[in-house]
Each structure stands twice: as C-alpha cells, then as structure tokens.
Design a protein that fits this description.
Protein name: Kelch repeat protein
InterPro entries: Gal_Oxase/kelch_b-propeller (IPR011043), Kelch-typ_b-propeller (IPR015915)
Keywords: Kelch repeat, Membrane, Repeat, Signal, Transmembrane, Transmembrane helix
Number of strands: 40
Organism: Podospora pseudocomata
Distance between the termini: 37 Å
Helix content: 10-25%
Shape: globular
Radius of gyration: 28 Å
Length: about 600
C-alpha cells in the first residue's frame, strides 16, 4: 500500500467529514453565543487576521477567534471565523488588558465573506483598505462568490466605515484567475501587488474538489484606474511577506521599492490530495533579500550583513519606520516552519533589518510564547502593534491580552501597553553604532544599480549624531556656511576671470602655433567611468560589482539602465523569458503535453 503523508491523510479525512456533514471544524455548536470581540476574560486566541492603521484607528479584518463559552473553551471547534470588522482608537494610550475594541456593523452590502489570510493592502490617500482572496470557513453553509471579487473598506475617520465591492475597469480579467491565500501583498501610493499564493476549494469555488492550484507570477491592481494586470515572472511563492519602502527609488516616478521575504517555493504541480510536501520544497532564506521595482516590475536581490534570522519560515510579521538619516528599519518576528521532523514549528525570535546597509540586528524575543499567523503595523511614531497569533492550537490561551503586543523600536522592548505620546523614531543604538563606524562603505553590493538606489554618494554614511537638517539650529548653521562660501566663491571667480583675460591676450597666440597634446589618461577615464556608473568614490574597487558587469555608454536622456531580472532570493538569472506577462496556475493531476507547455487560465 502506498504511504500517505500526515498532511494528506488529514486533508482526506477533513474532506470526507465535511462532505458527509458529520461535524464542523470551524464554527461553534448551534446555540452557543460567540462574539468577534469577546470580553478580555473570555478571550482565548486570535489568528489569520489583517490589520491597518488609518488615521487615528487600528482596523482588524478577517481571521478567526477562539473564546471561552460558559466555563469551558469552545467545544466542537478550533475557532470561529470573524464576520465583523473591528477598530481600536489609537489617539489615546491604552493597556491591552482593558482597551475597548469596537465591532463595526457588518450587515451592509459589499462586506466580504469571512476569510483568513487574504491579500491585504491600504490606500492612505483615501483612507481605505482592500481584501483579495483568503481562506473561507469550512462550514457547510459557507458563503463564496461565483467569481473572484475585490472588496474595499473606506474608513469614516471615527473608527467606522463602509464596505463595497470594487469593480475593476477590466471585469473580464476576474474570470481568468483564482482567488488565493498565503500570497504576499504590498502597495505603493498607486498600485497594489500580489505575489504568488495558492488556491483550493476553500478559496475559490471553481478550483474543484480536492485540488490545489499554485499561483505563478504576480498580479497588479492600479487603485486609480481600477485595472488588473498580470506580471510575468514564473516563480511560485507561498507564505512570503512583503513590505513597501517609500524612501528608495529605482526610477523617476518615486514608487519606492517592495521587499519580499521568506516563504516557500513549491513546484507548480501538487498531488490531487491538496497537499504540499514542504519537506522537499525550497524556500527563501533571509541572507538574500528580494527587491521588487514597482516601476519596471523587475526583481533584484541583495545579500545581507550580520547574523540572519533562521529559516525557512512563513506567516511572520513585518513592520518598519523611516529614519531621520534617510534609511528604513524593519522589524521581523515570529512565523512558522513547515519542515519536518517538527511540522508547524513556531518561532519566538525578533530581528531588525536596517536599510540601506541591509544589516540584521537581533532584537529580544517575544515575551509571550512562539507564534505565527499574526499581523502587525507601525503605530504612532515608534511602536509596532501586533495582533493575534497561533500557537499552533486554538484552545491554549494567548499570554498576550486580547492578542495584542507592542514593540518599542528605539529601545527594543516588548510591552502590553501603547503610548500615544511616545517621541520621534530613532534607530536603536546598536544600529546607529554600525553606521557610525563606517560599515556602510564595506557593504558588497550585488549590482551597481542597487548601490545607486540604496547608497549613492549623495547619501553617504548616516551620522546619527549630526543635527537634524530640518531643525532651526541646523538651518542657521547652513546659512552661515552659505555666506562664507558665497564670499570665497565670489573672490575665486574674480581671480579666474583675470587669469582668463591674461591667457587670452598674451599666452593663447603662442600656443596656437603649437600642436597641443591630448590630455588625460586611460586610468583617469576609467576612474571617471567608475564614478559615472556606480556613483561611488573612485577608491571603491569596481570588482565589487557583479561578475561580468562592464560600464556602457548611456544616453544622457535615459534613466537607469535595465540590468538582468533576478529570481527572488536566488541570485541573477541569465536571461528573461520573452512573451507577455503571465499569472497562472498549473492544474493538479495529470496534464496533457499542451497543458504542460502552456499556461492554463480559468474559463
């Protein structure tokens, strides 16, 4: 008899029991009263939710919550899906044990079905957030749309808001893709990007019973034109997390960059039992960061410095702050590993990745137990709010009151209370010291274009002890410098004019009778080229650029030169496959040669 993995067996058993209607893995026994925001003394655990800070309110959407009913934890269920949107007032300081959590009325048209682990992004310009896909309840009476729908929640500025279905300007596009879960998502001011993910009967009705479809490529949704499009790289990616960084830009449109971390890279086909064999799939580790350019839609990579977070891991949390020196610090914590022999292993560690140095710094572990499936967001000027997390079970009470934790970035301390009056953000001292010691100049950049983007000569090495250029005292200092510089510059200019006049009338006639030799040297030209293409001081060896790279003449009206596309986290790819962008799925089970050679789209 052929051996069946534990994940396959559980999937078959779950499917059989659900098909027979024997019991429900989600939802409570009929007659039990539950709440999407149970009282703190009844709260057990929350997970799979998504959070957004818009204005003065933290919004919590989707996911599952378990709670005590009577004197016992929930019976007949791991958890119940959350049907409401919640909000917390962030204009005031609060304690996690007592902070009130508002339940927003969900009896309105356009509210998405209860879902876990959807793609999720915010639009701060109009005070909204979006939900795409996610895993719906396993309950027999689950509600799912016939075709994919994109949901939008517009906040009202007072902790409430309204749901609606966002109809794209190219609606037929929705018939060509599946709704997915475990996708990485992030958005610029204009466009949202959804990377990878997987689909099954629990995300999309049309996938088919017992099948799992693995997404390849990515989707882009322009929030202004309401247009979907497919992006073309063929990587699969499940359980990764993305973060938009506005400070750094590849091009002139100032779209920022998107960092993609973690996750697994399963094969494009999986067996018919809806199982992925995580013991054999590759993964993205944290010593090599994927960088996505939203403008050119190209992938780049950069190796990191310092000890790195262990992996593989998925469903961890990312949140960050801009630094006053022009950089960006990102907190990473928690997550799970699906690798045997310890399946569903949870991490309890925390790390900070600092840009532009791409240097990892270890932060204190979470004071609560290991967790994954949580979500977080920067709040105020310096704190990160974490919501929920699985342990992996649902019946073990969460040590974090109401599932809420706070991390103060500058002091690198964990708390269960939020300080609405906390001061401005400054990098932790250990990160300040790293830059102050000149370590940025020792970074080995993967390509010259990445050095241009993250550490051009105009950026220099951040000096945490320098005065704030926006402060009044700093402005006065610059004014004095400008006065002195102007006086000296004027004198130098006058002397230069006198020298030019003497040369023109007395020396130039003699030189015209002679054949002037060419000036400059190959060494000087090479040094100039090196500065032109790397924008670094000429004493940095060009050999630090990627192997085989050579300077090339670029027209003055061109932007950045297009280099090779890089597979996320795997290093440079020798070529880019031609053809139109693709976002597709490989059907599970046997395939014909035509299906194997092409991409299958849903009809």
């Amino acid at each position: 008899m052929t051996a069946i993995s534990s994940s396959c067996r559980s999937g078959l058993i779950r499917a059989a029991l659900l098909g027979l209607g024997v019991f429900q893995l989600h939802g409570l026994v009929e007659g039990q009263e539950i709440s999407d925001s149970p009282p703190p003394d009844k709260f057990v655990r929350r997970g799979f939710a998504r959070v957004a800070l818009i204005g003065d309110y933290l919004y919590i959407e989707g996911g599952e919550v378990s709670q005590q009913v009577g004197d016992q934890n929930q019976q007949g269920s791991r958890s119940n899906y959350m049907n409401s949107t919640l909000s917390i007032d962030m204009s005031k300081s609060w304690d996690a044990k007592t902070v009130p959590i508002r339940i927003i009325d969900n009896k309105i048209s356009g509210k998405p079905p209860a879902r876990s682990r959807p793609a999720f992004w915010t639009n701060q310009q109009d005070g909204s957030f979006y939900v795409w896909g996610g895993m719906v309840s396993y309950r027999k009476d689950r509600v799912m749309p016939k075709f994919p729908e994109l949901y939008k929640f517009v906040t009202d500025g007072s902790g409430g808001g309204k749901w609606s279905i966002e109809t794209p300007s190219n609606p037929d596009f929705l018939r060509t893709v599946y709704l997915t879960e475990l996708a990485a998502s992030a958005a610029t001011d204009e466009t949202a990007f959804i990377f990878g993910g997987l689909a099954g009967e629990w995300t999309d009705l049309t996938v088919g019973w017992g099948r799992t479809e693995i997404a390849t490529g990515a989707l882009a949704f322009n929030m202004k034109t309401k247009t979907f499009e497919k992006l073309g790289y063929e990587e699969t990616l499940v359980g990764a997390v993305a973060e938009h960084i506005p400070q750094f830009n590849f091009g002139t449109k100032k779209q920022g960059v998107i960092l993609i971390m973690g996750g697994y890279i399963p094969e494009k086909r999986v067996d018919g039992n809806s199982a992925i064999d995580y013991s054999s799939v590759s993964s993205h580790l944290f010593d090599n960061i994927t960088i996505f350019d939203p403008e050119t839609r190209q992938m780049h990579y950069q190796t990191t410095t310092g000890p790195t977070p262990p992996g593989p891991r998925r469903e961890f949390c990312l949140a960050g702050f801009a630094t006053k020196e022009g950089g960006y610090d990102i907190l990473l914590f928690g997550g799970e590993s699906k690798r045997e022999p310890e399946l569903d292993f949870r991490y309890e560690d925390a790390w900070i990745l600092s840009l532009p140095g791409f240097v990892w710094t270890k932060a204190p572990n979470m004071p609560t137990q290991r967790r994954a499936d949580h979500h977080c967001t920067p709040a105020g000027k310096r704190q990160v709010i974490s919501v929920g997390g699985t342990a992996p079970g649902w019946r073990e009470p969460d040590p974090a009151p109401q599932g809420l934790m706070v991390f103060d970035m500058p002091s690198m301390t964990w708390r269960f209370n939020y300080d609405a009056d906390a001061g401005d953000y400054e990098s932790p001292q250990v990160i300040k010291d790293w830059y102050k010691n000149g370590s940025l100049s020792k970074v080995k950049w993967s390509t010259p274009i990445l050095q241009q983007v993250f550490a051009p000569d105009s950026f220099g090495i951040p000096n945490p002890d320098s005065p704030d250029p926006n402060s009044q005292s700093s402005g006065q200092g610059h004014s004095i410098g400008a006065i002195v510089g102007g006086v000296l510059g004027g004198l130098a200019g006058l002397l230069a004019l006198i020298a030019v006049g003497i040369w023109y009338f007395f020396y130039r006639p003699l030189k015209q009778k002679q054949k002037l030799p060419q000036t400059g040297s190959q060494e000087a030209l090479a040094a100039g080229d090196k500065y032109l293409y790397t924008r670094t001081p000429v004493n940095i060896p060009l050999q630090e650029a990627e192997a085989g790279w050579k300077p090339a003449e670029v027209a003055s009206n061109h932007g950045y030169a297009e280099l090779s596309v890089f597979s996320p986290g795997l290093g440079p790819s020798p070529s880019v496959s031609p053809g139109p962008p693709q976002y597709s799925f490989r059907p599970a089970g046997p395939q014909s040669p035509m299906e194997m050679d092409g991409y299958s789209e849903r009809r």
